Amino acid sequence: MATMTSAVRRPRGEYRKSQARRKEIVEAAVEVFATVGYNKGSLREIADRVGLTQAGLLHHFSNKELLAQAVLTWRDEDALALLGVPLPTGADLLRRLVDLAAYNERNPALMELHVVLSGEAASVEHPLHGYLVNRYAQVFGLVRAAFEQADRRGELRAGVDVDSAARTVISLMDGLQLQWLLNRGGVDMALDVARYLQSLLAVPL
Amino acid sequence: MATMTSAVRRPRGEYRKSQARRKEIVEAAVEVFATVGYNKGSLREIADRVGLTQAGLLHHFSNKELLAQAVLTWRDEDALALLGVPLPTGADLLRRLVDLAAYNERNPALMELHVVLSGEAASVEHPLHGYLVNRYAQVFGLVRAAFEQADRRGELRAGVDVDSAARTVISLMDGLQLQWLLNRGGVDMALDVARYLQSLLAVPL
DNA sequence: GTCTATATACTGATAGAC
DNA sequence: GTCTATCAGTATATAGAC
């Protein structure tokens, strides 16, 4: 979201066309990286899916890492938009996490993308490691703030450690996605997340 | 553990030597796969670390997938041994999960191996996918059984869903390892696992 | 903006000598 | 058991024509 359309004036419709191309490429890259990961996902395969040669693709994203970063920011913006605009606070945001889990469950390709890339990039040497470190710090900040607001509003049970709660609910959402992928249909992610959150909240979810 | 020494009689010490070689190779493979994953981890790199050529390595493990499976079973046996022999039951086993989390935290390389390979192999097309599916089914069975035993012994709070609890604690342990790798030292895994388990138990941890 | 052609590098696996 | 040599495949990235 929040595209920065025409920050620079361009002749004719070329820019718009190029933008559309980039979007096509990112969508194809999502599929490929989700299926085989970053390391094994090839630019040729992605280029094929949008009817380009590999060299043609590199005109739009000058190297593989830049393309992968575009994929990750696209996915992050998608998830963030799902949490609601403007972003809810306190227990309201925590409730949205349940919706997000349900949304993920309806989009296995997105889960696969998330799980596969997060796993690969957990290694310090991975090209996307830095991006992921940053991303998790932001996610943690967001969830922790929600618990803190909930606490101040009396929506939280007594004795809940907000740091631990934030880490736990994030771990839960990540780990459930892995288990879902290994046991499709055998896991109800939204239900498990809701159950855990309810165990911390003093108000109904 | 539980080596099957001399199920077949062999001439001289060749078998023993070969066994030692295999162990060296697996140890080197743990490092390499942990650092860059299965897809990017190369047999040449592993061979170099034990002073072999790539062809020499393939004498001991006839292809890459077999070597990776040896790595995974080695790691699983290690973790299982840490839970205790014979395997505890009920709340006792759940307590051991906290020890396992603490053990993992002292061995980042093992965490990296687990997180990176699990992520990669979440994809259906990955050579290790089948192994991982099987492994998670076993782990789930083990933890679920522990909750069920705890329930029968009155060690569990009322209203705890054993399936959901098993999925949740497994997700928690997996997700915390990812967060630990992205924020080294900023996560106390054993504490968070203990906190969650205590919230389900009617007895002290 | 897209192409062909190419440089350069690395991969897993096999054949066969020692 | 380990080696050398080699094959066939794949990869990213660049140069330059159109």
Write the layout of secondary structure elements.
The structure is a homodimer of 205-residue chains.
Chain A (H helix, E strand, L loop, with lengths): L13 H27 L2 H7 L4 H7 L3 H20 L6 H16 L2 H13 L8 H24 L9 H21 L6 H12 L5
Helix pairs in contact in A: 1-2, 1-4, 1-6, 2-3, 5-7, 5-9, 6-8, 7-8, 8-9
The structure holds a DNA duplex (18 and 18 nucleotides).
Describe this protein's structure:
The structure is a homodimer of 205-residue chains. Chain A is mostly helical and 205 residues long. Chain A has a domain at 64-200: Orthogonal Bundle (Tetracycline Repressor, domain 2), CATH 1.10.357.10. Helix content of chain A is 72%, strand content 0%. Chain A has helices at 14-40, 43-49, 54-60, 64-83, 90-105, 108-120, 129-152, 162-182, 189-200. Chain A starts with 13 loop residues before the first helix and ends in a 5-residue tail after the last helix. Chain A binds a DNA duplex (18 and 18 nucleotides) through residues 14, 17-18, 21, 42-44, 52-56, 58-60, 62-64.
